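assembly run, all chains below
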Amino acid sequence: MKILVCVKRVPAPGSKINVTPDGRGVDAANLGYTMSPHEECAVEAAAQLIEQHGGEATVLTLGAPEAVEQVRYGVSVGAQRAVLLATTDDDWDPQRTAQAIASAIDELESVDGTFDLILFGNESADSGGFQVGIRVAHALGRPMVNGAKGLSLGDRFANVEREADAGRETYSLPLPAVVGIKEGINLPRYPTMKGRLASKKVEISTMQASGEIGGLAKITLRQPPERKSETIVLGNGPEAASAVVDILEELGVL
Amino acid sequence: MPAVTLVIIEHDRGAISPATFEALTAARSLGADIQALTIGAAADRLAAELAPYGVNIVHQVHDDVLSDYGPEAWGEVVAQAVRALSPTFVLAAGTDRGNEVMAQAAARLDLPFSANCIEFRDGDKFEMTRIRWGGSLLEDASLTADIKLVTVAHHAVEAAFADAHGPADAIELKVSLDASLGRSIVKGRVEREAGVTLSTSPIVVGGGRGVGSADGFASLEALANELGGVVGCSRAVTNNGWRSHTAQVGQTGTRIAPDVYFACGISGAIQHWVGAMASKNIIAINTDKDANMVTKAGYAVIGDLHQVVPAITEEIRRRRS
Ligand SMILES: Cc1cc2nc3c(=O)[nH]c(=O)nc-3n(C[C@H](O)[C@H](O)[C@H](O)COP(=O)(O)OP(=O)(O)OC[C@H]3O[C@@H](n4cnc5c(N)ncnc54)[C@H](O)[C@@H]3O)c2cc1C
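ok done. output:
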């Protein structure tokens, strides 16, 4: 079993997402970085499948050289190999990103054979384009289902479950296949000592990302209008309970 | 020929998704002739339901492959419909399915696609405002293509009938689908049990890291039970394994819109806030009077949730007895 997980490095903001003065990016000074939560779960799903079925999981990211931090993290929580598709500019729209990832996969597969499964996050946490994984799957001619909340491997099939308004849907995709993972499919593990060591030692295969600029262009980022509210402090400690219940009565929910 | 806006009708075995009516409403802001595309025989006879939104023509597609929803099959249908009808704009709802189908179509047509838009500006360039970070940040963007593929963010527009409308003509649109597209059609389903869910509950009692443990949720459950509500939580809680992810409120969890949201021991990180901000009233319970959740909430109690929450439950019981 060979699994590839594609992850994205995103800022980890706290109470507010600040925009840089030029409006082109998130002001990440003082912020840490992380991989998108959906992708953390994708890495965990890959690690679990490798534990069950044997084989090898590779984590790939397209991004600035600093994004090695995220692929190393992937290795610390169960992946064996790491690939950085290095970028030198910031204009990575969804079409360009998908093109670069698809051709990198072609290259990786021509050396080491086909990935039985390629996993993405359902959507990236920061740009929320909802399309890179799907475009890559189409370029490779492989079946793809997004939003997976369940994933298991049958004989030459990937069984996918996802949530819809009416309940759970199941899909059965012939391998090789591509699946977009949603947070909640599993509980990602924390790095172990052994994992941390492996992530320090792993050799990062670095490739240059290349693709043509697509038709969706960012002009500027901005804050949504803020909902101003004056907070009414009902009191301190348990003595405030009576004031809380007064409010509940006022709101008519009792 | 006037410009055409083609709206993809998302439906589950014939039932139109609520977000699709919002997309239809947003479609009218583009000023083109509005036509709809329905996929699968289960969606025939929707014309009368679509006409009040200003739809003039409903293109109905049937094929044996389309026995149920399938992202690749639906995306291929949209791609073929776009080639046949040459619309200027193609819209769908910004839902899991809507975004997925549009991305499939975009890949097949080699066109750009802009997901989760809340506003369009058609001038020299076609520009839009779209949501990022689940709504915590807005992006103004431009889409350069002869055919513009976009989805409309759920809840960005309120669904409304057109001021004036005629009937919608249903016509069949022929497509040719390869049987191999059946590989990603829905194979089976487990229907959800009816009942109050996190997204529809009028009362949500949410707990964060401040709850401290899985057992700590007992007092939140008691309060939720007393009020006929459900328990929610932050990602810190699901990450610790204290509650299942189905209870998580936020960007990568569930959007809630209750009458009252009790946010207990939750700091109010932006990714949590976007899932909770549609709540009509928020009561924050936190030891930190400067926590973001406290300053954003309408009401707050400063104190230890382990004392405050049981006291509220007790007070409700006292007044009821
Ligand atoms: C891309 C991305 C997506 C994310 N998606 C989500 C999401 O969907 N949902 C989500 O919730 N988070 C999400 N997060 C995580 C988010 O950034 C925060 O880390 C998380 O919401 C914090 O949870 P918390 O408020 O419970 O914990 P903390 O931030 O640690 O806050 C705990 C709070 O409890 C208070 N407290 C402590 N003890 C007590 C006590 N005894 N009584 C009363 N108050 C007490 C503290 O004062 C503090 O305010 C996401 C993060 C990223 C990067």
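The CA atoms of residues 63 and 203 of chain B lie 44 Å apart.

The longest helix of chain B spans residues 305-320.

not gonna interpret more than that til we talk
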